[in-house]
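Batch manifest, entry 17 of 40.
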Amino acid sequence: MTGASSPLPAWPLDPALAALGLGPAAKIRRGMQILATAPRPPVALTASEVVFSQGRVDLRYYAPRRVRHAPVVLVPSLINRAFILDLEPGRSLVEALSAAGYPTYLVDWGVPTIADCGQGLDEVVGMLRRSIDRASRHARAPRAHLLGYCMGGTIATLLAARFPERVASLVALNAPARFSAGGRFADFVRQLDVDAAFDAEGLVPVETMKPAFQMLDPVGNVSKYLGIEAASHEPAKLARVLVRERWLEENVPLPGAFARDFIRDGYQRDALLHRRWIVHGRVAVVQDIRAPALVVACKKDFITPPAAALPLAEAIPGARAATLDVGHIGVVVGTEGPRQFYPLLDQFWSGVEA
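Output type: structure tokens
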């Protein structure tokens, strides 16, 4: 898809109300009204083509004008739409990487249906493995750089540990590693009976997952309405706020089998760093990863706090660690993405290829 995002019109405020000034409660109500009625801006505007499909999963290719580097495969989380990495022009990771000369591939997990219910972690890792193989063949490269974001970072790490020959380097961004330090979400699921909660032959519906994530930041669920009201007087700002809201709104269900595997082995057994996570019949030992690795955490991340992400850098021999003063989402789509995170990636991968 190509094109440019057009700002929304300013949201007019009754002059009489403007003269009186709005109190916090009135601003919250107005923000709620705008969120409920404003159209959502378009997303995923960087030109791409699907070069490989596996059922619901597409491998999207973003061609650079001139190839200067090895290919990069981006692995987002399974519980949100992949367009977080191509949210809007100017704040799009795929746009920035392809512009820098990286053949860029995005694993778009799609939306699971009843046909995908039985897919556990092994099946997900298998789909990622095939995606990396296809990306490398398409780019005519022996291996690819691998960047995993959030849950996608944990999956990418498991693949790098289990199938190291396919990975030129690993970047784990806000990826849970020491799950026992996983903050509010870890507290929420630690004692959960996953067999009773999730049907291995069904889907975990959005209606089950969304309230759980909203509970992680209850104050934020109110303050966002104040932010929407404040942005409503400037069309470009309002569009930027609403495009993020669109991503937050468009959650997808999870295969029940995968939810069981990930929560049990990750949050309940803390298996990743303790040599207990079995992938395709063998333990995935992250301490044996020899590919160059970069582990990135964010100080304002309450989904994967630095205490949960950074221990991965200690476990992988020679891995680099970086902590950025941003949040879980802002690192890829906020102001500091182009300023800090994108240059950090380019510096790391250029060093790997040297």
